[in-house]
Every structure is written in C-alpha cells, then in structure tokens.
Amino acid sequence: MPPAFEQQPNEWASFRSPVAAVSLNENTVTMTVRPQGEGAPALVIFDPPGFVDVEGAVTTAGEGADGVGLVLVPAGKRLQAKVSGKVGADARVVRFTRRVDDPSLLAGYALKVALEQAGIKVGGEVKAGHGKGPVLARHVSEPLSSLLYAVGKNSDNFYAEMIFKTLGGETKRRPARHADAAETVKSWLEKVGAFEAGMVVKNGSGLFDANRATASSMTTVLRAVYKDPALQTEFVAQLAVGGADGTLKKRFTAERARRNVRAKTGTLEDAIALSGYVLGPDGKGPIAFSVLMNGTAGHAAQARAAIDKLVLMLARRSWPR
C-alpha cells in the first residue's frame, strides 16, 4: 500500500487501489449484476474471476426496482463479497468497481481460472512464489510516454503510484520501494532547483497528506521540463487539454483558452490544484503556472472558478485579439 493510503482503511473505492509488481485490472474487482426473470436470482459476476467468494444473492424484481448492496470483507489473501438487494427486470446491468485489499494473488487466481477454462487441470492452492523460478514468458509494457496519458489526462492514481514506485526500482536496481522512488524524485528536484524547504515527497499520486509542495516549486519543475528537449514533447502531450480531453474537457472552453491550456488537475477533500502551461502563438513561449489552494472543503466549485478565471486571464494575455 502506498504511503498515507492507510489513512482510509475502510474506503474500498477504486481511486485508492494498492500497487504490486504483478497487477491486474488496476488491482480492482468489478461486480456485474445482470437481471434474470422477475423473481429469480440475478446473475452476479466478479472480474477478474476466482478472487472473490460471494455470499448472499440479488433478486430480480419488477421494473424500476433499484437497491443492490455490496460489502467487501478481507478473507485471508482473497475477498468475500456480501451481496444483497434487488435489481429491476428492466435494468441492463448494474456495476460496482472496488479495490482489493491485498493484490498479491489477484493475477494468480485469474490465471488459474483461465487455465481451467482452457481445459488445463490446476491442482492445489494459489500461492505467492519465491521469485527464483525460470522465466517462461516476458511482456514489455507500452512506452512511458503512453502510460503517462492515464496520469496527466485522467488523474489515474494507480498509474501514478505504479510509475512512481518503478522509478525507485529502476534507479536502485533492486525490488521497487516507495522510499527509493521518493529519494530519486527528491534528487531530481534538487538538481533543477525545485526542492524547497518544507517540501515532502512520499507517494506518487499526491493522495491524502503524504506530500508537501509549493506553487513556485511546481512552476520551476514546469520550466525545467519544457526547456529539456528530451522531456518537453512527451510531457506536454500527456497533460489534459483545455476544452478537449481528460479532466479539462469541460473547462477552458473559451476561444482563447481552448486547446491552449495544458495542465494537470489535483483534487483532495480540502485542497484543489491546477498546474501546467498556457501555450502561446508560434514564436512565443508558454506561460508556466501553478495554483495550489487549501481549505477548499465545501467550496470546491468556487475554488475551481477562481482558478479558471486566473488561467483565462493568462490565455487572453497570450492571445490578444
């Protein structure tokens, strides 16, 4: 579990799924409920398969019925799902996606089911290996530039944590640890002059209260990356595009901001942030900006409106009529 994720141990939402060297389905399980004939038990399916033991049932009721319940309970290395309630006969499907508590065997159970479905008998229990077996197959991931799209455009915490932890493993040449990743990031921040007094780096997603940063440090990072030919193109491309995609699809739709604002959003219960660039016309460099707001609980809409107003002012400055 990434640092600080333990602050919400009873939160099963997929946004805080754990990370592991072998991960499947972003270390989440999805329950799909399909109605059958009225009065009959609904079909309850979990994906990936094999990892969840189901207790209880969901009943197919009359049209318009709604109220499916799902409670997940750790059961050793697996999960037990307690399901209940009713689903309308007219409903297509009802889906819930939840994180797993321990992902170490998630892929193993899914592999066991896949082998059995292929007609291969599998005996014994699924267990974690010792790591000393022969390599039977090797899979190379997509390039980092592609993986970053999930982080920059969609704020995917799982991808952020996996990439962050991998940094530690790649630089230290040993099994990945969050502490090694934090050390690697801190060293780079110091190299570009962006590590300021009071800054803290512990996890890769920024969830909970693990990290501390300043707006000036963020703009220093943005300037350093933009000036580095090896980083600029891929980094800017993975950011959300104002009025076009990702978390900014419905923001910055005004003419001079649309597609000219490239930024990463940040949202916590009591903090909101936006950092990125306002691109300028050909021959004019971008404006790097960072806005970090604390104390926004209950005022998220107003905070975003204030940030958007400020960034729109920068866009109008870059693109005068």
The CA-CA distance between the termini, in Å, is 51 Å
Poorly predicted regions:
none
* CATH class category label of the largest domain: Alpha Beta
CATH topology description of the largest domain: Beta-lactamase
Rg from Cα: 23 Å
**Net shape:** globular
Number of helices: 7
Write the H/E string, N to C: EEEEEEEHHHHHHEEEEH
How would you describe this protein?
The chain has 321 residues and is an alpha+beta fold. The protein folds into 2 domains: 113 residues, no CATH class; 174 residues, 3-Layer(aba) Sandwich (Beta-lactamase), CATH 3.40.710.10. It has 7 helices and 11 strands. A hairpin with an 8-residue loop joins β1 and β2. The model has no long low-confidence stretch (mean pLDDT 91).
Supply the key terms.
about 325 residues, alpha+beta, Beta-lactamase, four-stranded mixed sheet, four-stranded antiparallel sheet
Please give the structural blueprint:
Blueprint: E1 28-34, E2 43-47, E3 52-56, E4 59-61, E5 66-75, E6 78-88, E7 94-99, H1 106-117, H2 144-152, H3 157-172, H4 178-191, H5 215-226, H6 232-237, E8 240-241, E9 261-268, E10 271-278, E11 287-294, H7 300-318
Parallel strand pairs: 3-6, 4-6
Antiparallel strand pairs: 1-2, 1-7, 5-6, 8-9, 9-10, 10-11
Helix pairs in contact: 2-3, 3-4
